[in-house]
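Can anyone check this?
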Amino acid sequence: MTRPVATIVPPYLLAQLANADDALAELARQTLVADQRRRTTRTLLGPVAAPERTRPATLVREIHDARHTEELPGALVRAEGAATTGDAAVDEAYDGFGSTWTLYREVYGRNSIDDAGMALVGTVHYGEDYQNAFWNGEQMVFGDGDGVVFGRFTASLDVIGHELTHGVTEHTAGLVYSGQSGALNESVSDVFGILVKQHALGQDAAASDWLIGADLLMPGVKGVALRNMLHPGTAYDDPRLGKDPQPADMSGYVKTRSDNGGVHYNSGIPNRAFALAATTIGGKAWDGVGRVWYDVLTGSGITAECDFATFAQLTITAARSRFGADSAEAAAVRDAWTTVGVTDGTGPGPDAPTPVGKNSDLLLRRTGGFAGLTSERRTTLAELPKPDRRAWQGLLAEDTLPRLAAGSRPRPDAFTYCVTCHDADVDVEVAEPDLPSHVRALFERTLRG
C-alpha cells in the first residue's frame, strides 16, 4: 500500500489551477508532478517502528535552505539557539517548530514528534515557485509559493502544526492515508494545527478563526484560507481556485478514487465535529476537547484503518472517561458527531456504564512459549504510567479484547495472554500472534512493570 507524502494544498486545488490559461498553470502542473513523484516512494502499513532510544525532552531545531533546488535537506542555515537570520522563511519555520513542540510537550507531555526527542528538521526555499508544503516522514519542506495565489508556506503557523502532526500520527495510530482513515489523518493534522495556533496566540475556542492556511492566500484571491473547520465548504470561491468543495456533513460525503479516496475533501466532516465540540464547550480547546482527541490518537483502541464512526465512538468514550459520563463535555462531543451525521445520537450517553476508572484492578498473565514459562502481574490502573493507564482504559472500555479473543486460537509454542478486569467485565485469553503490535507492546510493558 503506497503512502503519499502529506501535502497541505490538496491535489484537486492544484489541478484546478493547472487547468487555467495563464502563467500559473505551468507552475501548478510542475507542483503536481513533483508531488506525484513523491507519492509513490514510501509505504504505510500502520504505525512506524518505535525509536531505539529516547533523547532528553529538549527542543532541537534545524532549518535548511534548498536554494530553489529539490535537494534535501539543503544547507543548514539556523540551528537550535542560533540568532535570527533575517530570512523570513527561515525564521518563521524555526519559530513555528518551537510553537508546535511547545504545545505537544507542555499540554500533552509528548517528547517531540516521535515521543523520543526527535529533532525537528525543515527545509525552506524548496524548488522554483513550489506551491506546497509537506512532511516526508523525516522532515518538513516548504515552498515559497507563486506570489500570485500562494505566498510562502512558512507564513502560516497552523500549516506548520498540521504537517508536523502527520509525523505524530505516523508514530501513534498510523492512520492509513486512504478513504475515511486518510480523511481522519488529514483532520487530525488540521485539529492540532489549529491548536498550535490557538495555544501560541493564547486564544480560546470562541476567539479562533478556525481557518487552516489563512496566511497563504495572496491579496486578490477571493477566499480566506484553504479550509474552514467550523464551516467547511466556505473557505474560498475564486475564479482560479474554484469553490471550496469540502462537505459539512455526511450527506455531502464525496466518493472518489482521486485524492486517495477523498482524504482532503472529507476531512471537513470530522474537522467540523471537533470545532463544534470545542466551541460548545468553550475555553481553551487544547486543554478540553483537544485532550480527548489526543487520548484517542495515542490510545490502544484506534486502528490504522479506523473509520469515522469508530473514531467518533472512541472520542465519545474518551470524553466520558476524562470528564465524566454525564458531563457537558461528553455531551458536546456526542452531539457534534450527530450534527455532522456520523452518529445518530444513540451512542454512549449519560446512562451508559461508567468508564473504567484508574483504581480498577487488572490481572495480566502470559503463559506458554517453548519453555512453558508464566509471567503475571496484578496491579491497579493507577499504578501504571499515565500513557499506559489511558491506553488500558481505552482498551478495556471498548470491545477490542473480546473481539480479539473470539477470533483467536492457540498456537504451538506461542504465548497466550490472559486479561482480567472485573470493573470492565473482561476475562479473556488471546494468543500472542493475534494481538496487534501496539497492544502486544502495551502488554509487555505492563508485565515488565
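Reply from J.R.: I decoded it. The radius of gyration is 22 Å.
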